[in-house]
Write a structure and sequence with these properties.
Number of strands: 12
Family: Belongs to the LysR transcriptional regulatory family.
Radius of gyration: 31 Å
Structural class: alpha/beta
Shape: rod-shaped
Number of helices: 10
Keywords: DNA-binding, Transcription, Transcription regulation
Pfam family, one: LysR_substrate
Organism: Mesorhizobium australafricanum
Protein name: LysR family transcriptional regulator
């Protein structure tokens, strides 16, 4: 029994007349009668007896009716599901991001996305770049956001912006008198910054060499957010990305790094895995959120 035949059978069972059933399905009475007769021919038994203008279900029809209703409910659920997916009303979006974009960009992107698609489940993972690549490959995340575009060929990296660096100063530090700092100002300071062989460390080392400066962190970190507690404890000056909203942390003075290098902000996906419609909508929101965050950053005095 095909889907349309199933609909007609259930409609006639519920309405008891061809006229009422045809009205329920918004088709003509002759068309419904033809579908019903064709269904009975295919099944090899009669579904209804015609009695005084009404259709009386046969024992065979009564026997299959509960199964037909269950099938119809399943088909209706499938229709709703496919419609929701097409309109972006259902599904799951998984985004893996390194801590700076996870804290600065994703909240804005998720807020806009949730306003438009409240029924889509969102899942966020905060992870280093190597773990993000593994998650994209395995399908554990459909999108990634990281501050690195030097990735393997099977990972697509769309650069959606760039951001400079900032200096985090302990309370009362002598460099607080300056409104912005240069790399040269950090020479001789106890420096808290990225470990070697990472994108931020490489970018900073190249800029320092170009400016004739030698920087040597005394405390190396993997994630910029971990610098906060060390700076608050007075262990040194943090040299970190400027993407995170550092001003929200107490006991830390923030100064921009002038004439410094910039880090790319990349939107990542696996070339081997197609994105769902919901993934594509989230990708758009991440682009919009990144642009807004960077615009606000540039507008800071």
């Amino acid at each position: 029994m095909r889907a349309r035949q199933l609909e007609v059978f259930i409609a006639v069972m519920r309405a008891s007349t061809v006229t009422a059933a045809a009205r329920m399905l918004n088709i003509s009475q002759p068309a419904l009668s033809q579908i019903l007769l064709h269904t009975e021919d295919e099944l090899g038994f009669t579904l209804f007896e015609r009695v005084k203008g009404r259709l009386r279900p046969t024992p065979d029809a009564l026997e299959i009716f509960p199964d037909a209703e269950r099938l119809s409910a399943g088909l209706e659920g499938l229709r709703r599901k496919t419609t929701d997916l097409r309109l972006g009303r259902a599904g799951l979006v998984r985004v893996a991001a390194s801590p700076p974009p996870a804290m600065a960009i994703l909240p804005r992107a998720f807020t806009r996305f949730r306003e438009q698609h409240p029924n889509i489940l969102l899942r966020s993972h905060s992870a280093p770049i190597a773990a993000i690549v593994d998650m994209l490959r395995a399908g554990d995340a459909s999108l990634g956001v990281a501050m690195d575009d030097r990735l393997p060929p099977d990972i697509e990296a769309e650069v959606i912006g760039s951001i400079g660096f900032a200096c985090l100063l302990p309370a009362g530090h002598v460099l607080q008198k300056k409104t912005e700092l240069m790399l040269a100002d950090l020479v001789g300071q106890e420096l808290i910054s990225y470990r070697g062989n990472t994108r931020p460390a490489d970018v900073l080392a190249h800029a320092a060499h170009a400016q004739g400066v030698t920087l040597s962190p005394s405390l190396e970190i993997d994630a910029s957010i971990s610098a906060v507690s060390f700076v608050q404890a007075g262990l040194g000056v943090g040299l970190v990305d400027a993407l995170l909203p550092w001003e929200q942390f107490t006991g830390v003075a923030v100064r921009p790094l002038a004439n410094g290098p910039e880090l790319p902000i990349a939107l990542l996906s696996s070339r081997a895995r197609a994105l769902s419609r919901a993934d594509e909508m989230m990708r758009h929101e991440i682009r919009v959120a990144c642009a807004a965050v960077l615009s606000e950053h540039r507008a800071k005095p």
